[in-house]
Each structure stands twice: as structure tokens, then as C-alpha cells.
Amino acid sequence: MKITVVGAGAVGASCAEYIAIKNFASEVVLVDIKEGFAEGKAMDLMQTASLNGFDTRIVGSTSDYSKTANSDICVITSGIPRKPGMTREELIGINAGIVKDVSASLVKHSPNTILIVVSNPMDTMTYLAHKTTGLPKNRIIGMGGALDSARFKYRLAEALEAPISDVDGMVIGGHSDKGMVPLTRLATRNSVPVTEFISQDRLDEVREATKVGGATLTGLLGTSAWYAPGAAVSGLVQAIACDQKKIFPCSVLLEGEYGLNDLCIGVPVVLGKNGIEKIVDIKLTEAERTHLKESAEGVSATNGLLEL
Ligand SMILES: NC(=O)C1=CN([C@@H]2O[C@H](COP(=O)(O)OP(=O)(O)OC[C@H]3O[C@@H](n4cnc5c(N)ncnc54)[C@H](O)[C@@H]3O)[C@@H](O)[C@H]2O)C=CC1
Ligand SMILES: O=C([O-])CC(=O)C(=O)O
């Protein structure tokens, strides 16, 4: 199993590290435009192999896509991150050009690959990858919901004063400060609805803290987060590489599912060896549907800024 990660910055390197530590891939190719940067990150990571006990070979490349040839899965993290006070949508001007070039180069060398898009604004960059590459919809996946759901579980555990392993929850919708839709109604602690343990007001606080999870970290760090994003990407990669058939919320091209069309937005999907094996169309309440529709309107407005 060969995996390419483009962008050897904070998220790309973290993602490569988690993939290697999980030890399911034979090779990870890290690519960056900055001369020597990916090679340096790859060498540093390879020097953790004996310490962390993995056999995955990590190779670096400065913009040489021939090294990525025949990758089974390619992850795009190249692009600029936001600074405190910015929205993800403000990154479109620079990141659209990068994602367009990178996705075309990747597919040229790996026509059968599955693409995972991480660069922001992620839902719009995933849509752009569709328009650029023309890959079938099961082979283009945007990562956002898996991360947002991990943050939702973190906030739920905090409110419940419970271990994170005891809670479950999912966030759908756009990967944006306003557009996320944490499904509080379905959140559970060991199969028991969380409303049995905390008030609706506390749950509303959890929902709002989840939606601004990325902005909160950006305020603290001065740039956006990388550990949980890297771990979330590695989870999607592993589900595909190991044909796990696990459900994750991912940004996917919708063609009528959830009453939405011609955009990529986060909904639950089954991930396996074919990428998106199935879009899971769960029954939402009227209010949840309305929130998802409003979120979709936001994503479509950002898509409208693309020069296609
Ligand atoms: N979807 C999500 O959940 C998340 C998305 N992000 C996004 O991921 C992106 C990367 O974030 P970080 O890793 O923190 O940024 P970073 O600045 O640490 O790394 C980005 C890397 O991309 C490289 N790069 C730029 N143009 C390139 C090109 N044409 N080809 C190859 N490499 C190129 C840069 O040299 C840099 O090393 C940002 O757009 C950020 O907003 C970050 C966290 C979560
Ligand atoms: O907040 C950001 O800009 C990066 C990101 O998407 C996240 O961490 O959720």
C-alpha cells in the first residue's frame, strides 16, 4: 500500500507520522514545494522508526511527482493555514490554485488513486478536485467531519466528566465555523443519550464550542492545529487501506442525497477499499435538515468564488 501526502508542513507531517506508527502502509511519499523540506521531514520521521517500531518507508520529494507514481491513496494538505481572526474561506484565493495544480499532478501519475482533500476551505477544495480531475465520486473524499467529530467527543467528555472512550457523537455539514452541524440529538455516553446526564443548555455550549474548535486552537497556537487533523486523516487512510467499512462523516459530492446537489459537504459515509463505499442517508429532524441546508448554502456560496 503506497500513500502520498502532499504538503510536508504541520498537518502533512503529522498525518505521515500517524500513518507510519499505525504500520499498515509499505510506503509514504511526502511531497513539498519547499526545496529539501519533504526530504528532511521524511528523514527525521524515518529516524523514529526504530524508536516507534514501524516498518513503513517514508520518502521525501521536492515537487517530483514521478516518486508518487501508482499511489493507492493521495492526501492533499498543501496550502496556507489561517491565522487568528481569519475564516477558512479567506484561504481560497491562494489555496485554490495550489489544490488545482497538485490534484492534476497526482492523478497524472496515479490515475487509479483515491484522493483525500484536507486543504481549506476544505469542502470547496474537494469540489475543485472533482472539477479538476473528473475522478468518480467514490474516489474523492474531503476530511473535516472526522476531525470535527473528534472535537465534539472531546467537548462532550468534558461536559459529562466522562472518559472520551465512553462517548460517541458525529458532526455533519460544512467544515466551517458557522456551517458545522453537531448532531447533539444522537450523542451518547455508552449508548445512553447524553441528555440523560447534562442539560440542554450545557449541550448547546458543547455544540457551539465544537463549531469553533479550529478557530479556538488557531487563537492559541497562532496557526491552525495539526495533531488531531493528522490523526483524523490517518483514520480515513487506514479505513480505506484496510478495507474497514467504517462510518466517518466526510465531504463528498452529493447528487440528491440529503436533498442536496452539486456540492461537496460532510455526511456519513462507509469507507473501504473503493473509497466511499456508500453514502449513509440518515433520517434527520426538520431542524437538523434546516441547519444542513443553511450550511450547504454557505458552501455553495464559497464554491461560487472558484474560477472553473
Ligand atoms: N480539513 C481540515 O480538517 C484541516 C485543514 N487544514 C488545512 O490544511 C492546510 C495545511 O495546513 P498546515 O499543514 O498547518 O500548513 P503548513 O504551512 O504547515 O504546511 C503547508 C505546506 O504546504 C506546502 N505547499 C504549498 N504549496 C505547495 C505546492 N504547490 N505543492 C506542494 N506543497 C506545497 C508548503 O510549503 C508547506 O510546507 C491548510 O490549508 C489548513 O487550513 C488544517 C487542519 C485541518
Ligand atoms: O481551523 C483551521 O483553519 C484548520 C482546520 O480546518 C481545523 O483545525 O479544523
Topology (SSEs and partners):
Elements: E1 2-6, H1 10-22, E2 27-32, H2 37-46, H3 49-52, E3 57-62, E4 73-76, H4 92-109, E5 114-117, H5 122-133, E6 140-142, H6 145-160, E7 167-168, E8 171-173, E9 180-182, E10 188-189, E11 192-193, H7 200-211, H8 213-221, H9 227-241, E12 246-255, E13 261-272, E14 275-279, H10 286-303
Parallel strand pairs: 1-2, 1-4, 2-3, 4-5, 5-6
Antiparallel strand pairs: 7-10, 8-9, 10-11, 12-13, 13-14
Helix pairs in contact: 1-9, 4-5, 5-10, 6-7, 6-9
The structure holds 1,4-dihydronicotinamide adenine dinucleotide and oxaloacetate ion (OAA).
Q: Please give the domain count.
A: 2
The run of helices and strands is: EHEHHEEHEHEHEEEEEHHHEEEH
Say which molecules are bound, naming each kind only once.
1,4-dihydronicotinamide adenine dinucleotide, oxaloacetate ion
Biggest sheet: strand arrangement: 3-2-1-4-5-6
Rg value: 18 Å
Count of DSSP-assigned helices = 10
CATH class of the largest domain: Alpha Beta
CATH architecture of the largest domain: Alpha-Beta Complex
Could you tell me how far the N terminus lies from the C terminus, measured between alpha carbons in angstroms? 33 Å
pLDDT < 50 stretches: none
Largest sheet: 6 strands, parallel
Please indicate the percent range of residues in DSSP E strands (runs of 2 or more).
15-25%
Catalytic activity: (S)-malate + NAD(+) = oxaloacetate + NADH + H(+)
Keywords: NAD, Oxidoreductase, Tricarboxylic acid cycle
Family: Belongs to the LDH/MDH superfamily. MDH type 3 family.
Protein name: Malate dehydrogenase
